[in-house]
Input
Amino acid sequence: MKIGLVGGSFDPIHAGHVAPVRAARAALSLDRVFFLPTAHPPHKPGRQMAPALARFAMVELALLGEEGMFVSTHELGAAPAYTVETLEHFHAELPAVDLHLIVGSDSLASLPSWRRWRELPRLARLVVLTRPGAEGALRREAWPAELREAFDDGRLVAVEHPPVTVSSTELRAILARGDEPPAGSLHPLVLDYARKYRLYDETSAR
Output
C-alpha cells in the first residue's frame, strides 16, 4: 500500500492545498493521503492562528467529498511536530506501507533546515508539487550539494499541477474584512464554519 502524508497549518485549508494533492494522488496511484494539521508548526513560532481543533475540523470538511483523502490527528499534540518524527510514527504503525511525503516546491530549498532532514529519504519518498515548466529546479545539478548527497533519483519525484492563485494569508485578510473570498478558493462548508465561529474576524479573540 502507498500512503501520502501532507502537513501544514491549514489556516484555513483552501483549493491550493487540496487540488495539487489530488493530482499527486492520481499521478502516483496513492491508496490514501493523510492531511496532518499541525497544532504548533515549528517554522511559525509565535504566529496567532485559529485554534488547532478548528483547523482540523476545516480540513475534515474540505476533504469529505475527496476520495482517498483523509485528515489525521497525529500532529495535534501539545509539542511542536517535526516531520521526521511523524514519519517514524507512521512507519511504526504501518511498517509495510510505502510512505510518500508531499511538499510544496518552496520546501525543497528549505529542507536542510528541517530537524534530522538527512533521515527523510530512508523514511519516505519525497513528492514535490511543482508548477508546469518549473521542473528544471528539481534537476539534481540545481540542488545544493547536501541535497544531492541525501537523495538519489528514486527518492524524489515531482508532480506538476497548475498553480492555484490563492493563499491562506490572503484568505484570512479577506475573511477578517468580511469580504467574499474568490470563487472556488474555499470549500463552502469551510467558509460556513469559519464564519459561524468567527475564526478570522478582526474582533475575534480566537
